[in-house]
Design brief:
By secondary structure, the chain is an alpha/beta fold. It has 21 helices and 16 strands. It has three domains: 109 residues, Glucose Oxidase, domain 1 (3-Layer(bba) Sandwich), CATH 3.50.30.10; 104 residues, PtsI, HPr-binding domain (Enzyme I, Chain A, domain 2); 267 residues, Phosphoenolpyruvate-binding domains (TIM Barrel). The strands form two sheets. The chain has an eight-stranded mixed sheet. It has an eight-stranded parallel barrel with strand order 9-10-11-12-13-14-15-16, surrounded by six helices. The N terminus is likely disordered. The structure holds phosphoenolpyruvate (PEP) and magnesium ion (MG). Pfam families: PEP-utilisers_N (PF05524), PEP-utilizers (PF00391), PEP-utilizers_C (PF02896).
Length: 565
C-alpha cells in the first residue's frame, strides 16, 4: 500500500463543507474485546447478570444525562443510544449468554455481533446503524472493567478529530470550539456522524479508508470538507489563508436569502429533500427551501413489518405536508427495494437488486399497494385543505418506459393528483418525448441516473470515480431531458445529490433545469452561488461540461468559467 508522506492528499467522502487547518487528534481507544473460552460457575451466574445490568444501566443513565444537557438532533441521538443500551432484545441476548456460562463482557460481545450481522444483512440504512451497536458494546465493556469511557479525548483545541468511526454519542457531545473538523475512516454520508456533523456545521469527511491510520496525532492537517480531502505537509501560511477564505464564504452563505435567482434575475426554485416530518420541519424553519422537491416515503417504513393502513399512511404524510402549507410538495411513491428494504414491499433474495424489482416495478405485481399509497397521499392533502396554491405533486421512482408513465399518471388522475416521474433510468431520459405527454413534470434522480448510465454501483467506494454526476455522459442525458421538457412544456427538476453541489447547480441551471432539490443544509450554498453568476455564464459552463472528456475535466472546465462564490 502507498505510504502517507508529507504533502500527501488523501481523499474521502465530503459531508460538510469548510476548510480547517489544525492538529490531528485521535479518539480514545476502544476496549480490547474479550475472547470466548472462560466459563462462569453456575452459582456465580446470577451475580454476573447483576453486574451486567448495573453496568448497562450506568451507561444508559450517563447517556440520558448528556441528552438532557444537549439540544436538537444531538439530544435525540444521545437518547436513542441510551435506548439501545436498554433495548430488550439486546439485553435478552446478553442474558442468555450469561446464563449459558459466558462472562458478562463476552456475552455483550456475542449478543452485539449477532445484531450487527443481522443489520449488515439488511443492508442500506440498517447497516449504517451498526456503529451505534458497537459503540454501546464498547461503553458497557469499559464500564464492566472499570475502565474510562471510550470516546472523545480531553483537548485544549482547536483540533481535527480523527476516528475509525465516530459513535453517535461522541459526535453529539462534541464541543465545536475545540473540535473544528471531523475525519473518519469508515461511515457513510447518511451515518449518524454525518447527520450530526451537518447539524453542528463542522467540516466533515467520512469513509477515508485505512490510509487515515497512518496520520499520527499532533500532525497539522488541512481538511477540506467540500473536496473531501485531508492534506499533510501544507504550507501553514497558505493553509491559514484557505481557512480564512472558507470562513468568509460560510458567512456569505449564512447571509443568503431566497428565493433563488441568478445575478440577472433568472429564477430557479430551490426545494428540500426530506424523509419525514422532522426533516420537513427543519427545512421549513432552518432553510430557505421554497417547498419540498423530494419526500422519500419509503424511509418512513424501513422498520414497519406490515403495510400501514391508508389512514395511518395519511397521518405520516400529513406531518410533512403541513410544514409547507402554502408551497409545493413533491411526494415520491414508495421506492422500496435494493438498498432501501421495506418489509412489506421488497422482493426477497434477488441476484441483482439494483436492477431488480424496485421502485414502481414493485407495484406491477401489487397495484393495490400503489393505489393505497396514492389514496393516502390524496387523503392527507384533502384533510389539510391543500389546493392549487399548495400543490401536492406525486412522482414514481424507477420509471423506464412510456407505458409505465401512462399507467402511473392514470392512477394519479383518478385521484386528482399531479403526476410526474423520476428520470433515473437512462431509458426514461432517452424516451422523454414519449413519456412527457403523459406527465406534468419530471424530476431527475442523478444518484441512480449516474449509477445506471455508468454501470457502476452507487454503494461501491472503489467506483466513486464513475458514480460522479459530473460525468459528461450523465450531463448529456440531463441536457436531452431539459430540451424535451422545453418542447413539451414539462417542468424538469433535479433531486439527486448533484443539486447540492453549488458549481454543478450552475451547470444544471445552464442546461435548463427549473428546480433543484437537495438536503436543507445545502440550499444556502447553492443559492449564494447562483446569485453570483448570470444565466449566460451558467449556459457557457454547461456547454463546457458537456464537451469535457470526463468528470474531472468537466469540473476543471466549469471552474475556468465560474469561480466558486
Ligand atoms: C436519485 O436516485 O437520485 C434519487 C433522488 O433517489 P434515491 O437517492 O432515493 O434513490
Ligand atoms: Mg433513485
Amino acid at each position: 500500500m502507498e505510504n502517507v508522506t508529507k504533502d500527501t492528499v488523501i481523499k474521502g467522502t465530503a459531508v460538510v463543507p469548510g476548510v480547517r487547518y489544525a492538529k490531528a487528534v485521535w479518539i480514545s481507544p476502544r476496549p480490547e474485546l474479550p475472547q470466548a473460552g472462560e466459563v462462569v460457575d453456575e452459582a456465580q451466574r446470577e451475580a454476573e447478570l447483576e453486574r451486567f445490568i448495573t453496568a448497562a444501566d450506568a451507561v444508559a443513565a450517563r447517556l440520558l444525562d448528556r441528552s438532557s444537557k444537549a439540544q436538537g438532533a444531538a439530544a435525540e441521538v444521545l437518547k436513542a443510544t441510551a435506548g439501545m443500551v436498554s433495548d430488550r432484545g439486546w439485553r435478552k441476548a446478553v442474558r442468555k449468554g450469561i446464563q449459558g456460562g459466558h462472562p458478562a463482557e463476552y456475552a455483550v460481545v456475542a449478543a452485539t455481533t449477532k445484531f450487527v450481522t443481522m443489520f449488515e444483512a439488511a443492508g442500506g440504512v440498517m447497516a449504517e446503524r451498526t456503529t451505534d451497536l458497537r459503540d454501546i458494546r464498547d461503553r458497557v465493556i469499559a464500564e464492566l472493567r472499570g475502565e474510562p469511557e471510550p470516546g472523545l479525548p480531553d483537548v485544549e483545541g482547536p483540533v481535527v478529530l480523527f476516528a475509525d468511526d465516530l459513535s453517535p454519542a461522541d459526535t453529539a457531545a462534541l464541543n465545536t470550539d475545540l473540535f473544528v473538523g471531523l475525519v473518519t475512516e469508515l461511515g457513510g454520508p447518511t451515518s449518524h456522524t454525518a447527520i450530526i456533523a451537518r447539524q453542528l456545521n463542522v467540516p466533515c469527511i467520512v469513509a477515508v479508508g485505512a490510509k487515515l491510520k497512518d496520520i499520527k496525532a499532533g500532525e497539522p492537517v488541512l481538511v477540506d470538507g467540500s473536496l473531501g480531502t485531508v492534506t499533510l505537509g501544507s504550507d501553514p501560511e497558505v493553509a491559514k489563508l484557505a481557512e480564512q477564505e472558507s470562513k468568509m464564504l460560510a458567512e456569505r452563505i449564512a447571509q443568503w436569502r431566497g428565493p433563488a435567482q441568478t445575478k440577472d434575475g433568472h429564477r430557479v426554485q430551490l426545494l428540500a429533500n426530506v424523509q419525514d416530518g422532522k426533516a420537513a420541519r427543519i427545512a421549513a424553519t432552518e432553510s430557505q427551501a421554497e417547498g419540498i422537491g423530494l419526500f422519500r416515503t419509503e424511509m418512513c417504513f424501513l422498520t414497519a413489518t406490515e403495510e400501514p393502513s391508508v389512514e395511518e399512511q395519511a397521518a405520516v404524510y400529513k406531518k410533512v405536508l403541513e410544514q409547507f402549507p402554502h408551497s409545493k410538495v413533491v411526494v415520491r411513491s414508495l421506492d422500496a427495494g435494493s438498498d432501501k428494504p421495506v418489509a412489506f414491499a421488497s422482493m426477497a433474495d434477488e441476484m441483482n437488486p439494483a436492477l431488480g424489482v424496485r421502485g414502481l416495478r414493485v407495484a406491477r405485481a401489487n397495484e393495490d399497494l400503489l393505489t393505497r399509497q396514492l389514496d393516502a397521499i390524496a387523503l392527507a392533502a384533502k384533510e389539510l385543505g391543500r389546493d392549487e396554491n399548495s400543490p401536492t405533486w406525486v412522482m414514481a421512482p424507477m420509471v423506464a418506459t412510456a407505458r409505465e408513465a401512462k399507467w402511473f399518471a392514470g392512477l394519479c388522475a383518478e385521484r386528482n393528483l399531479t403526476a410526474g416521474a423520476m428520470i433515473e433510468v437512462p431509458a426514461a431520459s432517452l424516451m422523454a418525448d414519449k413519456l412527457m405527454p403523459y406527465l406534468d413534470f419530471v424530476s431527475i434522480g442523478t444518484n441512480d441516473l449516474t449509477q445506471y448510465t455508468m454501470a457502476a454501483d452507487r454503494m461501491s467506494p472503489q467506483l466513486a470515480y464513475l458514480t460522479d454526476p459530473w460525468q459528461p455522459a450523465v450531463l448529456r442525458l440531463i441536457s436531452h431531458t431539459c430540451k424535451e421538457g422545453k418542447r413539451f412544456n414539462t417542468a424538469v427538476g433535479v433531486c439527486g445529490e448533484a443539486a447540492a453541489d453549488p458549481l454543478l447547480a450552475c451547470v444544471l441551471t445552464g442546461l435548463g433545469v427549473n428546480s433543484l432539490s437537495a438536503a436543507s443544509t445545502a440550499i444556502a450554498g447553492v443559492g449564494a452561488q447562483l446569485a453570483a453568476v448570470d444565466l449566460e455564464t451558467c449556459q457557457k459552463a454547461a456547454e463546457a461540461a458537456l464537451d469535457a472528456e470526463g468528470a474531472t475535466e468537466a469540473r476543471a472546465a466549469v471552474r475556468a468559467v465560474i469561480q466558486p462564490s
